[in-house]
Amino acid sequence: MFAMGKSDPDVPFTILSETRKRWTITIASLVTFVSPVSANIYYPALNPLAQDLHVTPFKITLTITVFMIIQGIGSLMVAGLSDVYGRRPIVLLALLLYMGVNIGLAQQTSYPVLMALRCLQSFGSSTATVVCSSVAADLVPRSERGRYMIYSSLGVTLGPAIGPIVGGVLTQYLDWRSTFWFLAIWAGIMTIMLIVFVPETCRAVVGNGSIPPARWNRSLV
């Protein structure tokens, strides 16, 4: 039925209302905030981290390079999984991993642990970002996506812009650990928002929304 519906002008691209569609895309976009902000919020804390962990600034800078490498690899590993199992389970697992890793980063006192957790942080954030970036494509036909750019690009635009500012304020008035607590809290908020409000959007799983997903994969609302 859905395959026929794609070429049938009487079948809507999605059954979600305009308000629900924009709300879903906006929440998914806010999830994509975690990847750029994780990289940028870290910069003001480099020197305090080097001092507390008793390593050179060069070694701390290496954690940025590793973060970017894993960021590219992680997105390649999970892109296909979300097309098979759906967006919500992959994103929720990625956010839970990301939240747990940030809690670990906030409490670690060892450079090797910092490096390992930064790799996991990069994997979790890039996974959530690449999957949530597909939500707009699930809900909006290509010819109309320009009207939704303000919603779909919100997270990746805000991350690089406010990440260093937030990181600088937190590092100056609290300490470098507070930056990771901030990221963990943000991941927790986004996890709750996804569980409560965001429906499964993968067209291979729910079509235009008229095919109900598995019961465990439904939003509370």
UniProtKB/TrEMBL annotation:
The keyword Lipid metabolism does not apply. InterPro entries: MFS (IPR011701), MFS_dom (IPR020846), MFS_trans_sf (IPR036259), Sugar_transporter_CS (IPR005829). It is found in: Membrane. Pfam families: MFS_1 (PF07690). GO terms for biological process: export across plasma membrane; xenobiotic transport. The keyword Transmembrane helix applies. The chain crosses the membrane at residues 23-43, 55-78, 90-107, 148-174, 180-198. Keywords: Membrane, Transmembrane, Transmembrane helix, Transport. Gene3D superfamilies: Multidrug resistance protein D. SUPFAM superfamilies: MFS general substrate transporter (SSF103473). Residues 24-221 form the Major facilitator superfamily (MFS) profile domain. It is a multi-pass membrane protein. GO terms for cellular component: plasma membrane. PROSITE patterns: MFS, SUGAR_TRANSPORT_1. GO terms for molecular function: transmembrane transporter activity. It comes from the Eukaryota. This is Major facilitator superfamily domain-containing protein. It comes from Penicillium frequentans.
